[in-house]
Write a structure and sequence with these properties.
By secondary structure, this protein is an all-beta fold. It has one domain: Jelly Rolls (Sandwich). 0% of the residues lie in helices and 50% in strands. The protein has no helices and eleven strands. The protein has strands at 2-8, 19-29, 34-42, 52-57, 63-65, 68-70, 72-77, 82-84, 91-92, 97-106, 122-129. Strand 5 (63-65) and strand 6 (68-70) form a beta hairpin. The protein starts with a strand and ends in a 7-residue tail after the last strand.
């Protein structure tokens, strides 16, 4: 089983490309172990001086980023403000019920990307059950 989610900052009360939470139309109950990956994204150009964009979410486990842990789905060059990712990287989903999903973008020093308040951002996430490993 799998789910695709196209999440837009337009689906929130206060649209902002750099930090938005989308309430799902119905809760997703995820039995067993699930994984999430970022498939594509579309954001405004990052402000001058931004070198990388970290696409983060509140539904995945933390990964090591530099000398700390962050809930990051992907770190991409700031020039890649719009992209379809050919090779998704999956992270464990950190809860069994999803009512909402927060997406937020940070720079290399963990500051929220300062987009204008009415800017629009969109991501596509793929959720899948963790594949079973068969030992031979």
């Amino acid at each position: 089983m799998e789910h695709y989610m196209i999440l837009s900052s337009l689906d929130t009360v206060l649209p902002h490309a750099g930090d938005f939470t989308v309430r799902l139309p119905i809760p997703l109950n995820l039995e067993g172990e699930w994984q999430v990956a970022l498939l594509d994204y579309d954001f405004p150009k990052a402000p001058k001086g931004t070198h990388c964009i970290r696409v983060c979410t509140d539904i995945c486990d933390e990964a090591i980023v530099g000398g700390t842990y962050k809930q990051v789905l992907r770190s991409v060059p700031a020039s890649w403000y719009r992209s379809r990712l050919e090779l998704p990287i999956y992270f464990r989903v950190n809860r069994s019920r999803l009512d909402s999903v927060r997406i937020y973008l940070t720079d290399s020093v963990d500051r929220l990307i300062p987009y204008p308040p009415s800017s629009i951002g969109e991501v596509t996430l793929h959720l899948r059950r963790k594949p079973l490993r068969v030992c031979a």
